[in-house]
Amino acid sequence: MSASKTLFSSHNCSELFESTKLLEAVFNTSPLALHVLRSVRDSEEKIIDFDIVLTNTTSEAMAGRQVTGMRMLDGWPHTKEIGLFDRFVRSVETGEPVDFEQYYEGDGVRSWFRWLA
């Protein structure tokens, strides 16, 4: 490997590190509750749940507990009953965004939310 390629790779790593730090800062200081979700699929590739991969401090405070590492339907089964879960599934499958407001009353929660995915 040439020295120029090594320098270039080192430069890219530095830029990636700085970008990651900036994204983390924005994510963690947002007044909005943010979740990063990953689809959980069964043997037939059907989405059966979402892993909560990452949340910010606002989300944890609103939930009153740590939710990173949980599954959506374990923590909030009411999302299935009100169609929210299915809207997230449809968004993953079609690529069409989710953007709507809804009063959520279930799982010990009573509040208005704006859902974006």
Structure description:
The chain is built from 5 helices and 4 strands. It has 117 residues and is of the alpha+beta class. The strands form 2 sheets. It has a two-stranded antiparallel sheet with strand order 1-2. It has a two-stranded antiparallel ribbon with strand order 3-4.
Shape: globular
How many runs of DSSP E, i.e. beta strands?
4
Proportion of residues in extended strands: 25-35%
* Fraction of residues in H or I helices: 40-55%
Short description:
By secondary structure, the chain is an alpha+beta fold. About 45% of the residues lie in helices and about 25% in strands.
Features:
117 residues; alpha+beta; two-stranded antiparallel sheet; 5 helices; 45% helix; globular
